[in-house]
Specification:
Aspartate Aminotransferase, domain 2; Aspartate Aminotransferase, domain 1; three-stranded antiparallel beta sheet; binds pyridoxal-5'-phosphate
């Protein structure tokens, strides 16, 4: 029997060692080998920018696309690059073709920026926003599915669903949601900002109309790297929000160049796939999920609350309910005190009328980080 490979730890990251960084979900940090790869690409680009951007880049991006399509189980012909998931959702919402009387369904876990985009798109088209409330704790996948499908109506023209929600870390049963929506003829946009790397993703199996995911969160590529996958039936309609040279040449050529940008985060993404792949993605995910659960339970135990769970509903971000009500100002003050006095980076989120700490787990974290958080809370909430 071969011994399991040892997982890399904090030494593989450049994070400030004085910090307990428990917000990988907010902004993930890229490991050193990935940053080194990005530097190599940057140096190559700066030696001959014209040759690099005009002659070499198309083939390099083609290779990155093929690798990521394999990693995500995606149809490479449907995969395009965007700067971030925000651009991915906006691209779809601006062009999906909403009409007066249509309804767009989101959940109360929807990321605020995506919600702002839905509000903008519905206001511009005369469509209506509907919100499905998904309780926390959600219990099980069936409860989540039922909460969403109960709000579908004959007027629903689009469902926007998180793959993993920001405010709660809840892993939505997206496959079942897509299947139920499609059975009713309703297209689905999946916001997969947190999914790539955190969960095994098989976009072919998922079959969503639209899926966008960041590479700079849980894949740990450098920042400003994301993908958008569009199902074949929609590819005539969806174009980048910024038109450039290839705009008239079809779906993928239109996205391939949207003006001069830094392509090095994308070019370094394969190094991120390889970095975790060496240790084994399955082992990395199992480690992060287990650490997030144990860390959250430790903190909740110390503040006298209970971590919400649910089979199949949890990943590497977990919620710790705070023991008493906090106003918005108090929540922000708590975040600031945790950072300034204790060097702990952790967000306080709001959902279902309550405030929660959202703790993340990545390979650079250890239980000591959560113990520090528990100690700090014991003082701050006393
Ligand atoms: C669910 C969700 N969607 C979208 C985004 C936006 O990601 P970005 O800022 O990289 O566009 C985030 C960021 O945290 C998120 O949590």
């Amino acid at each position: 029997m071969t011994a399991p490979l040892e997982l890399p730890g904090a030494a593989a990251w450049r994070l400030d060692p004085s910090l307990a960084y428990l917000n990988h979900g907010g902004f993930g940090a890229a490991p050193l080998p990935v940053l080194a790869e990005q530097r190599t690409w940057r140096d190559a680009m700066e030696r001959n920018p014209t040759g690099f951007l005009v002659r070499d880049l198309p083939e390099q991006l083609h290779q990155v696309r093929a690798l990521l399509a394999g990693f995500l189980g995606a149809d490479a012909d449907g995969l395009v690059f965007v700067g971030n998931a925000t651009a991915g959702t906006q691209t779809v919402l601006a062009q999906v073709g909403l009409a007066p009387g249509d309804e767009v369904l989101v959940t109360d876990h929807c990321y605020p920026a995506a919600l702002a985009q839905v509000k903008r798109a519905t206001a511009a088209s005369g469509a209506t926003l509907r919100v499905a409330e998904v309780p926390m704790p959600a219990g099980d996948q069936e409860t989540v599915l039922a909460a969403v499908t109960a709000r579908l109506s004959p007027r629903t023209a689009l469902v926007v669903i998180d793959h993993v929600a920001s405010c709660s870390g809840l892993v939505f049963p997206v496959e079942q949601i897509v299947a139920e929506c499609h059975a009713r003829g309703v297209p689905v946009l999946v916001d997969g900002a947190h999914a790539t790397g955190q969960l095994p993703v098989d976009l072919g199996r998922l079959g969503a109309d639209f899926w966008t995911g960041n590479l700079h969160k849980w894949l740990c590529a450098p920042k400003a790297a994301a993908v958008l996958q569009v199902a074949e039936r929609w590819r005539d309609r969806i174009r980048p929000l910024v038109a450039s040279h290839g705009f008239a040449d079809g779906y993928q050529p239109a996205f391939d160049w949207t003006g001069t940008q830094d392509p090095t985060p994308l070019l370094a993404a394969p190094a991120a796939v390889a970095f975790f792949g060496q240790a084994g993605w399955q082992a990395v995910r199992a480690h992060n999920q287990d650490l997030a659960r144990r860390g959250a339970e430790l903190v909740a135990g110390r503040v006298g609350t209970t971590v919400p769970g649910g089979a199949g509903l949890t990943g590497a971000m977990r919620l710790v309910p705070l023991p008493r009500e906090l106003t918005e100002a108090e929540a922000r003050a708590l975040e600031t005190s945790l950072l300034d006095r204790y060097r702990i980076v952790v967000p306080v989120t709001y959902l279902g009328g309550w405030r929660w700490l959202r703790v993340s787990a990545q390979l650079y974290n250890t239980m000591t980080d959560y113990e520090r958080l528990a100690d700090a809370l014991a003082e701050l909430l006393a």
